[in-house]
Write a structure and sequence with these properties.
276 residues, alpha/beta, Leucine-rich repeat, LRR (right-handed beta-alpha superhelix), seven-stranded parallel β-sheet, two-stranded parallel sheet, 37% helix, disordered N terminus, disordered C terminus
């Protein structure tokens, strides 16, 4: 049976699962003995699934959810029953997505459960203590292979801090999304000083870069090794964009987008000629 093919026909399954209480999966009665617990597991559909099938279901759920939903999904499925917990703890890849908002103890627990696998780091809220974050990033720098930093315009410095906090020898994918919804009347192709993001030369193996909502300085330091580039041109002056593109000599895929503010009326974006 092709589990992935079947589950693709149920797009809302995992999102719904991550928000259901454990009581939805097990009878309300509490087992009075290990034998009773085994009987309950056999009586429920969840308890009848074989180990390998559950592994595939968990993996599909992990791939289907956005980073902010993954932790809740993993915690939920690992508390359904002893059997589900055994399966989830055996599946190291479920525990590889870590949020910078978590405590160091939380990070340590998930990193241990991930075994030797590389880690995916996410940021979706304001950083309260940069000292603690720096210490954490330095400790796990050799295991972090991707970052997704989603910040508001006011917290763009937090994203810049995280990216430049230390040397990341294993980091190959970087996504930075700056939310500018509260500033819809930005002038196109003229970066606001508050939306400038400077990247250092501390990511030698970066292959994929996705920057949305910010004008990015020093991309040329990383450009030579890039295979994929996705960028929002709303904050870029055309000459700067073309100069950057010229040094991306190994690109295999390129995605560009731009937003014109309401005040621009019917004004069209400039026509871009070939960069070479």
């Amino acid at each position: 049976m092709d589990v992935d093919l079947y589950l693709r026909t149920q797009p809302g399954f995992f999102k719904a699962l991550s928000f259901l209480p454990v009581s939805k999966f097990l009878p309300s009665m509490a087992p009075s003995s290990p034998v009773a617990a085994t009987s309950i597991r056999r009586m429920t559909p969840a308890g009848c699934l074989p180990f390998e099938l559950l592994e595939q279901i968990f993996a599909f759920g992990h791939r289907s959810l956005c980073p902010s939903e993954i932790s809740r999904f993993v915690v939920t499925v690992s508390h359904v029953s002893k059997f589900w917990r055994h399966v989830s703890l055996h599946q190291k890849s479920l525990w590889t997505t870590l949020d910078l908002a978590w405590s160091m103890q939380h990070w340590k627990m998930w990193a241990e459960r991930a075994g030797g696998k590389l880690l995916h780091c996410v940021l979706s809220s304001h950083i309260n203590s940069r000292t603690k974050i720096q210490s954490r990033l330095e400790h796990y720098s050799t295991r972090i292979c991707s970052m997704k930093l989603a910040v508001s315009r006011e917290d763009i410095e937090d994203a810049e801090f995280v990216v430049n906090a230390t040397h990341f020898p294993a980091l190959t994918s970087l996504i930075i999304c700056v939310n500018n919804e509260n500033h819809p009347n930005r002038h196109p192709y003229e970066p606001d000083p508050f939306e400038v993001l400077a990247l250092g030369g501390n990511i030698p193996r970066l292959k994929s870069l996705d920057i949305q909502g910010a004008y990015t300085l020093n991309v040329s330091r990383l450009a030579h090794g890039l295979k994929h580039l996705s960028i929002d041109l709303s904050d870029w002056a055309l000459p700067d964009w073309l100069d950057m593109l010229r040094v991306c000599v190994n690109l295999e895929s390129l995605e560009v987008s731009w937003d014109l503010p309401c005040s621009a009326g019917d004004r069209s974006p400039p026509v871009m000629g070939p960069p070479y």
